[in-house]
Amino acid sequence: xxMKGHTTEQIVSILRQVxxxxxxxxxxxxxxxxxxxxxxxxxxxxxxYGGLKIDEAxxxxxxxxxxERLKKIVAEQxxxxxxxxxxxxxxxxx
Length: 94
Prior knowledge:
The chain has four helices and no strands. The chain is an all-alpha fold. It is rod-shaped and about 80 Å long.
């Protein structure tokens, strides 16, 4: 199969290419073989990125990265809070 780890922009570009090829009358199986993806991958990508333009895909990727960063911050804060609670319990038990 093709390479793994396509960027969002590459996925949107591939989906557009598939649409153009289908409009030209090619069969979906031929197109997927040409672009190097499986049917499952195509349908998953189409469900997730089907209506996006490339600039929207970039914005989505940026938002996903920001979301991951914020999740890490929240996780670190939760750990810090738990450590402080345990420390407080130890102090109170003395």
